[in-house]
Design a protein that fits this description.
Layout: H1 2-5, E1 20-21, E2 24-37, E3 40-52, H2 72-75, E4 96-98, H3 99-108, H4 112-134, H5 136-141, E5 150-158, E6 164-170, H6 180-196, H7 204-223
Antiparallel strand pairs: 1-2, 2-3, 2-5, 3-4, 5-6
Length: 224
Amino acid sequence: EEASKLGRVVVQRYIKNPHLIQGRKYDLRLYVTATSADPMRVYIHEQGYARLCSESFDLSRPQDLFRHVTNSNLQKFHSDYDLNNQSTSQRPVGNKWHISAVREEWRRSGSDKIIWDRLQEAIVRAFVMFESIGFEESRRQMRHRGNCFCLFGVDVLLDAQLKPWLLELNGVPSTGTDSTLDIAIKSAMIGDLLSLLGLCSRDPAAAQRQAARDLTVSLSQRQG
C-alpha cells in the first residue's frame, strides 16, 4: 500500500552475501551484441571489467555506502579512490579491474570455469526473456531479420555461492573513456563488434587513398 502511494517504483532485493575480491564487494560490466532478433542471436564479448568498493564489505555497517555500493559515481568521493585510473589488465589496482584480472582471481580459487559458464547461462536466459517482450517492435520495423544489431552493457553481481544476479541490461552502454584501462577495454570491444558485423574498422579516407594507389599500380602494370 505504501509503495502504491509513491507511484511507479523499483523494488530490488539486496544480496547480503556477495562474492568478494580482496574482501571487497564488486559487480561486473560485460558486453553483449545482438545481431538478429528473429531468431535471437547474441554474442558475449570477452572484454569487460569489474567495479569494486573502496572499503571492505561489512554487513553490520549498512549505512556505509563505500562498502556496499559499487557504482563509480559514488565511489569516486572516497579518499582512496583511484583518481588517476592506473589499473591495467596485468596490474589491477583501485576500483576498476579488467575482466582478465578478475578471472585470474577466480582461477586461483578454481572457480573460473563454473563462474563463466553460469554468467553465460544467465545472460542467455535474460535475452530469451527479453526476446518475447523487447523485440516485437523491432520485428515490425525490420525488412530483414539480419539488418540490425544492438550492443548491450550487462551488469551482474555474484553471490558467495557463485550465483550470478542480473542488475541491469543497458541498451545504450557508454563507450566514453577516461583512463587507459577504459581505452584498452572499449577499443578492443568495438573492434570485435565491427569484425562481428563484417565491417572494416580502418579510416574510410585512408581506404579510398589505398584503393586509388592500387588502381594506379594496376593500370601502370597493364600499360607496361
